Amino acid sequence: MAAAPDRRQIKTRAALHSAFRSLVLGQGYDALTVGAVADMANVGRSTFYEHYRTMDDLLSASIQGPFATLADLVDKPADGDALLNLLLHFRENQQVARVLLGWPTRPVLASTLAQLIADRLRASSLAAPLVPAEVVARQVAEMQLALVDAWIAGRPAMLPDAVARALVAGTDALMSALAGRVR
């Protein structure tokens, strides 16, 4: 069993995430460098590499917590409050969300969400899927991100409750069609 991170590790990761967020907003993802993130976080480049291999790994780690709520839709009854809170968080941070849901970070977001979903599918007792779990997970992740992206962009305008219900219904429909889930 791996030891829990100590306070210094938690503090360093928080500083890296904060620097990453600030720099993404100011420069865009393409212009980011490990050196710039490390400098802004007041850590050395080697310290960055002790925690993350690449900028994509930092991005993936920064979104796993929020994306767990979306991934949970495949194998748990929807927690309407958690889902609504997540959507409102995205809306409140729409400048960051718009940057991250665009190119070149969208594939990293989709892969991260798909991995979270695939992990849940492998741990669940669903019937044999029509296609491999990784394919089901990628389809569900892409659908969820497309809906969140459209909502954040306001194209068309949608109420948060309607988006939450659509995420649940869309996830259920894809899971039923591709993963053999019957509810």
UniProtKB/TrEMBL annotation:
Report domain HTH tetR-type positions: 10-70
TM region positions: none
Q: List the Pfam families hit by this protein, alphabetically.
A: TetR_N
Leader sequence range is none
Q: Does the keyword Transport apply?
A: no
UniProt keywords (A-Z) are: DNA-binding
Would you tell me the protein name for this molecule?
Answer: TetR family transcriptional regulator
Q: Which organism is it from?
A: Duganella aceris
